[in-house]
Each structure stands twice: as structure tokens, then as C-alpha cells.
Specification:
Largest sheet: 6 strands, mixed
Strand order of the largest sheet: 7-8-10-13-15-14
Number of strands: 20
Number of domains: 2
CATH architecture of the largest domain: 4-Layer Sandwich
Oligomer: single chain
Distance between the termini: 101 Å
Number of helices: 14
């Protein structure tokens, strides 16, 4: 009798083992160009992956990969292209801050990227071969469908009618799911550059529409989530700035073709040693920041009594002479400027971390007034001057010169400006960084 029980248990263990398989996903999000810092960075994430990731494990980035690094932003992301490839990513999803370098530069970056780009809710007007809505991969005889979704507000971060076309997130997910059903996938993973809460809804309300989704990997909100269930799906959000990389393990029963359990772990990187293989990238970033700081100009600030005076002066100057001002111009104090500071390229970057151009559009006086009112609502007393008022009494139309940030919608801050700019001819001039640099050079002459 005892022998029969032992045989039965052994047979049961064998059957369970035969039916069990596992899929492992690794994910990073909102790295923002941090290669190495006391709390983390890509160099430390590389060390974790080098030690723990298996060749069959999937690695995905959820967006906002390079914005935040001086060298990456000023090079259109190119300075981080090689490190991205060295990390061994299988897929990536665009974040909202990828658009900060401008869609033209972003297209150039993605053209050289050797990693498939997943994005269902927006596409370049001229299609990129490596950009798809979704993908299907097979691991351990398990078919995994992966859907990529960019920021819900992506369309309000670029000028209308240029470079890209956009779709509502819900419609984009529905279309990808319909395609994945035909592919007969076993597991569906939604990689979404978005958090739990967003304007007009929550992740819970979104997932209630799509019960087929098994795992959601989030980003954008910087609200780290180690792992929990939301509306039937398993949700994680990797730590920002390279402070952690998430690992998701999906146990799958090959006989029943169903998920048995999902578990996850956040590998925090603060105490992780930097991989020596990343040294050349760390050194390159340090050199870029160093040269950005040492390219100093003559001291042009001694004539001002305070940072506040300089803020106000530059605001008015930008409107009067450059024809535009941008919200970032008012954060000069964050660049560490005082009366003894010399202006350099790095500080101009700190004033304007996002790509922003002076743009011109023809509007009616009524439209002009509505845009101006919108700007006054959004801005403080200095930022009222965001628009160069060129209206002269008696004219039916005026030429409005402002920043691309406003006419694109400013991430929901300027919906009326975005609406007015739709289907209008928009003329783009030089970037605000170039104009401010030129302005300082003129002062030094």
C-alpha cells in the first residue's frame, strides 16, 4: 500500500512538472538618461541583468528613456543609442518625454534604433519599419502577445498636422487585441506609458473594458508599484531614474493553457555595484557635462540686482525681441544662476530642457483673445507675456508668434490653442535655445 502511494505521488509530481512552464519579463521605465548615480542608473541595472537575466527572458523599456541627460537631449538621444543596444532590450515603448527633442530628431533616433518599437496609439506619418502596434513572441512553447501604448496625451505634445497621427488609447488597444486573438496568443501583456490615474479615468476603468489583458507594465507617473491586481490584471511599475528594475514571473500550465500564478520582484539598484562594461558610457556622459559647463561666456549678469530682476528682464526681452517665451525660461534659478555666474550651454539647456521652437500662425482677434486668456489662466504674473501681442486696432487678423509648446496643447494646458491651430498653416522658426544663446552672445559684443 505504501509503495503504491509513493508511486502515485511521484507520478503526480511528474505530471505537474510536465505541465508547468514559465515566462520571465524584465522592465525599466522613466530612466530619464541616468547612466550612473548614487541611487541607481543604467550601469547598475546592467549589473543586475548581467547576474540574473537568462537569455530567454524578455526585457522591455516603458518610455522616457533619455530625456533628462544633457548629452542625450542635446544630441537628440544619440549619445544613449549604444548603451540602449548594449542593455539587450527586446522591445521599447515611446514615452511623452521622447517627444521633447522634437519629432524630426525622434524619428532619426528611432530609425537607428535596432530594437522593435511598440506603439498602438500613434504612428509617424511616414511609417518606420521597426515601429509596430504589437508583437508576438514565443517562449517555452508559450505565445505572448505584447501591446505597446504611448502617453494618452501624446497628441498635445506635438504641433497638429505634423509628423505623426494619433488614436485614442481605447481604440488602439481594441484593435491590437483583435489582431492578437487571430494570432491565438496564450498571454497578453500591455506595456503602457501611463500610471493608475489619468485625466478622465483610471487604469481600473480602462482594464474593465479589456478583461483579456493579463499583465500591465506601467510608466510615466513615477509611482513605483512592486505588483498587485487591478481589475483582474497584474500591474507593476518599475522604479524611475534607474533606481530599480522589475522582474515578472508568469507560471503557465501547458496542459490547460492557462496562467497558474504571477509574481514579481523589484530589484533596487542603490547598493548594486556599477558594471565595468558600462565605464565607457559613464565617462562619455561625464565628459559631455564637463564640456557643457566649461564653455563659459563673459559675465553678463552683474548689472542685475537679483535673479528675479533677471527673470523679469529676460521674459520681456524674449517676447519683445525673440517673439516668444517658454515656461522653462522662468526657472532660471534652477540652473544655479546668481550674480557671479557665467552663462554657458549647459545652463541654457537647464533653462530649456525640452525642445521648443518659435512658431507663427494667423488668427482672428477673437481667437487671439481666447488664447491669451488661456495663457493667463495657466501662467503666473511673469508668464502672462507668453504671447507677443502684435494686434493693432482695426485689423481683422493678426500674426501670432508664440512657442510650439502652446500651439501643440502643452499637455492639456492649452486645449483652445491646440484647437485653433488644427488645420492652420504654422511657420516654425529657430529653437528657443538657439535664440537665447544668440541673445546672450549679442549682449557680450
Amino acid at each position: 500500500m505504501c509503495k503504491k502511494v509513493i508511486i502515485f505521488l511521484l507520478l503526480l509530481c511528474y505530471l505537474l512538472a510536465v505541465g508547468a512552464a514559465e515566462v520571465v519579463l524584465w522592465a525599466t521605465s522613466d530612466v530619464h538618461g541616468v547612466i550612473n548615480s548614487p541611487k541607481g542608473g543604467l550601469a547598475k541595472i546592467f549589473s543586475v541583468l548581467e547576474a540574473k537575466r537568462k537569455p530567454e527572458d524578455l526585457l522591455i523599456d516603458v518610455g522616457d528613456f533619455f530625456q533628462g541627460s544633457y548629452s542625450a537631449n542635446t544630441s537628440g538621444g544619440m549619445s544613449l543609442l549604444n548603451i540602449f543596444h548594449s542593455m539587450g532590450y527586446d522591445f521599447c515603448v515611446p514615452g511623452n518625454h521622447e517627444m521633447d527633442i522634437g519629432m524630426k530628431k525622434l524619428r532619426e533616433f528611432y530609425t537607428l534604433l535596432k530594437v522593435p518599437l511598440l506603439c498602438a496609439n500613434w504612428k509617424f506619418v511616414k511609417a518606420l519599419p521597426n515601429m509596430k502596434s504589437h508583437a508576438v513572441v514565443v517562449r517555452n512553447n508559450i505565445r505572448i502577445g505584447i501591446i505597446g501604448v504611448g502617453d494618452r496625451e501624446s497628441r498635445t505634445r506635438v504641433l497638429p498636422g505634423r509628423e505623426a497621427v494619433f488614436m485614442k488609447e481605447e481604440k488602439a488597444i481594441a484593435q491590437s487585441l483583435a489582431a492578437l486573438r487571430k494570432e491565438k496568443v496564450d498571454i497578453i501583456v500591455l506595456v503602457r506609458h501611463g500610471g493608475i490615474y489619468f485625466s478622465g479615468g483610471t487604469l481600473y476603468s480602462l482594464l474593465k473594458l479589456f478583461p483579456e489583458i493579463d499583465v500591465v507594465i506601467g510608466g510615466h507617473s513615477h509611482q513605483t508599484e512592486r505588483g498587485r491586481k487591478i481589475a483582474g490584471a497584474y500591474y507593476i511599475h518599475p522604479a524611475p531614474y534607474g533606481q530599480g528594475v522589475s522582474e515578472v514571473r508568469i507560471a503557465f500550465n501547458e496542459r490547460t493553457r492557462k496562467i497558474e500564478r504571477i509574481s514579481s520582484f523589484l530589484h533596487e539598484t542603490e547598493s548594486v555595484k556599477t558594471s565595468v562594461k558600462m565605464k565607457k558610457y559613464i565617462d562619455a556622459e561625464r565628459r559631455a557635462a564637463f564640456y557643457g559647463n566649461v564653455e563659459t561666456a563673459k559675465n553678463v549678469l552683474l548689472q542685475y540686482k537679483s535673479v528675479e530682476d533677471l527673470q523679469k528682464y529676460l521674459t520681456l526681452k524674449a517676447v519683445a525681441e525673440l517673439g516668444s517665451a517658454d515656461a522653462e525660461l522662468f526657472f532660471i534659478d534652477k540652473a544655479g544662476i546668481d550674480r557671479k555666474t557665467k552663462i554657458n550651454d549647459y545652463m541654457i539647456y537647464r533653462m530649456f530642457p525640452y525642445e521648443n521652437n518659435v512658431v507663427q500662425i494667423k488668427v482672428s482677434y477673437k481667437e487671439y483673445q481666447s488664447i491669451l486668456a488661456e495663457c493667463r489662466k495657466y501662467c503666473d504674473k511673469y508668464k502672462v507675456a507668453l504671447i507677443n501681442e502684435l494686434h493693432k486696432s482695426g485689423k481683422k487678423y493678426i500674426i501670432l508668434r508664440t512657442s510650439s509648446f502652446i500651439l501643440s496643447g502643452g499637455g492639456r494646458n492649452f486645449p483652445e490653442a491646440r484647437r485653433i491651430a488644427e488645420n492652420r498653416k504654422i511657420t516654425e522658426f529657430a529653437s528657443l535655445r538657439q535664440l537665447v544663446k544668440q541673445y546672450f552672445m549679442q549682449l557680450q559684443e
